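Q: Could you fold this chain for me?
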Amino acid sequence: MRKPHLRGRGPDLPVLDQVTQYDFEPGYVVFTQPAPKRLRVKATDEVIADTTEGLILFESDHLPVYYFPCRSVRMELFERSDHHTFCPYKGKASYYSLKGRNEGYTNIMWRYEAPVPACPAIGGYVSFYWNRVDHWYEEDEEIFVHARDPYRRVDCLPSSRRVQVFLEGEEIADSVNGVFLFETGQPTRYYLPTEDVRQEFLHPSDRATQCPYKGQAAYFHARIGDTTHKNILWTYPDPIAEAVRVKGLYCFANEFVDRILVGGVEQPRPMTGFSHGYS
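A: Sure. Below is the predicted structure, expressed as structure tokens.
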């Protein structure tokens, strides 16, 4: 059964939580659907996979994964390794490395040649470790981190509702000119103009992250008195087109500030995957 705080990491379709696909773990699901976009993968400056007939595989508690028909992959560039893994939901996976390349390109591709009976028919497909190849593209746009989930939507809506952010007893932001970002399966994020945030508490961080739905984020620490809250605020200096309304605005991590009031109503502190291992 999917853990509630991880449901945003798969298709946000609660009905799937009730599907019995695997007798040994009711509620766990694996399914595929066509991915009609042109998908490409590059490694060592070569296109190693190129298809318009890919699949996107969804699995409980996992991020979506693109699978490529074997015929769309330059199999002559690969050699099978002696590495194997076993997944009870998909079967035995064989791994492949790029021929004549360094260890950075070892076991970068896998295939379930004989999937278990409850698994979708992926025997004729392969997939790649996202961070072991160099570039991924949907059509002509490079994408980052993981496959974009078609069941996840991002809406950036201007709002005049007053947003107040408190940390260590200080009101560190107060705005009626924010942009509220609604992302499927995630808490609402409140992006605020820089002039509505108390800059004297902020100090740049060297942390940077990437999001397939928004782009690359830069971070700030907040220092109040002797206490430093690391990476508690982020901004997207140059977001992708779908999130352009939050360009240059500041967003505080709902999970770690003391309080956020929206229209005078205190918002509950969410528990998300972002809450775990964050620093």
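A (continued): The two ends are 28 Å apart (CA to CA).
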